[in-house]
Structure to design on (196 residues):
């Protein structure tokens, strides 16, 4: 016969702490998620601010370039006329957008004559017809007696070569843009129209 064995059931009680552990971890998960969301929000705000700064820089560059172009256009308008006879300051309105209204006003200062020197009498009016008025009377010996290099007297033509500085300033109150452009201009004038 088989010996009879007595089996006693052992009761083991295992306390499960998994539920409490999960509940305390769920709070940490929420905090970590919120931290990451705040970080992503800060990155997004920084990117938007960076984009806005880039737009402002590009806009400032555009306004500066427009103002320089307007000043140059005003200078070109002034020097296209004979400004040497009576140099005056002028305001030149310029329409950039093409809508018929002036977007900018350039203030062109009084053109300043920097130098004036007599032109030598060796001008050939056939090669340079624009200088024909400088040689009028040269066949009869007319000309202007000037002191040349080394103190020698030299007969010059009836013209002077003059150098002018023409400056234009654009000051736009809407954008705060200020641009000043200077341009040197060489003009041959009749003798006697020296620098004022």
């Amino acid at each position: 016969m088989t010996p009879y064995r007595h089996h006693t059931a052992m009761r083991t009680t295992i306390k499960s702490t998994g539920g409490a552990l999960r509940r305390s971890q769920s709070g940490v998960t929420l905090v970590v998620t919120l931290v990451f969301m705040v970080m992503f929000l800060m990155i997004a705000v920084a990117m938007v601010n960076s984009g806005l700064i880039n737009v402002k820089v590009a806009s400032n560059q555009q306004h500066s370039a427009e103002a320089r172009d307007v000043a140059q256009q005003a200078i070109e308008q002034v020097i296209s006329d004979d400004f040497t006879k009576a140099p005056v300051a002028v305001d030149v309105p310029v329409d950039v957008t093409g809508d018929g209204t002036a977007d900018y006003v350039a203030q062109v200062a009084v053109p300043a004559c920097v130098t004036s020197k007599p032109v030598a009498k060796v001008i050939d009016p056939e090669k340079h017809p624009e200088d024909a008025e400088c040689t009028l009377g040269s066949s009869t010996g007319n000309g202007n007696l000037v002191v040349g290099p080394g103190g020698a007297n030299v007969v010059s033509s009836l013209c002077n070569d003059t150098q002018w500085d023409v400056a234009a300033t654009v000051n736009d109150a809407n954008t705060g843009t200020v641009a000043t452009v200077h341009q040197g201009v060489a003009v041959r004038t009749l003798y006697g129209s020296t620098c004022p």
